[in-house]
Amino acid sequence: MGACQKESVSQRVSVTKRKCHKESVSQRESVTKRKCHKEKESQRVSVTKRKSHKEKESQRERVTKRKCHKEKESQRVSVTKRKSHKESVSQRERVTKSQCHKEKESQRERVTKRKSHKEKVSQRERVTKSQCHKEKESQRVSVTKRKCHKEKVSQRERVTKSQCHKEKESQRVSVTKRKSHKESVSQRERVTKRKSHKEKESQRESVTKRKCHKEKESQRAQARCHRFGQSKAVKVYRLITRNYGREMLHKASLKLGLDRAVLQSMSGNNNGPVQQFSKKEIEDLLRKGAYAAIMDENDEGNRFC
Q1: Which of 12, 187, 276, 279 is found 20 to 30 A from 91 (Cα to Cα)?
Q2: What are the residues whose beta carbons fall under 8 Å from the beta carbon of 44, sequence distance 6 or more?
Q3: What tens digit of pLDDT does each residue of 121-134 get?
Q4: Can you give the pTM of this predicted structure?
């Protein structure tokens, strides 16, 4: 009977050791997987940062500083979270190791007590003690099963939390990419608008320069007719385009607008009081001319055009 009981106790001790070893191995695998996942996430974040940095090099320094500040704050928060997670995992491993060590010591003490008690007690007491021992072992097995179940539930909760964290990080990365793409598109549109505006202005300047040059050449040619020694008759041909009349009327209306806005408002009529204009009327006279201001007042601009 004593030999059988020793063998059963040794088997139970070996079973508990195997369980502890399996739990430690599973925890190490989970830790390695988390480390690999963290390294992959850090690599992805670094790739996204490089891309965003290349796209945003043309932006202003203030925007880059703000974004760098935000990224540093997010990195600090992630680092603190990872450190707290690692510390919690290490604490749990220590607690489990201490529990296993305590259980082993308690088992050794029980074995020594049983040996001394077996020598002093008869066979009847041995039977009763074996029955009590079986009941206690069944209770311990139930307690260990409950602990294992709780640990599995806690691991599942951790896995769900890690998945939620991954989804949130992916959403943040997508939002940052969209914002950077929108900003790059807006900058390109602004650059194209500026280029088109500059080209239009350069074309207008070139056209005005050509017109002035042609007018000067025509005036010089007309002035040559009045030189000393010019005895022959000279004919001057002037080309009039389709919109020449409108240009002449526009120039004349601008001159009349200046006369009306400056000279008449300063001098006034001899018989009546001085004519006072508002700021809007003066701006219309200087920009559009007298004829355009009169047509706007009478609502006859569309008829003329």
Answers
A1: 12
A2: 173
A3: 877 877 887 888 89
A4: 0.24
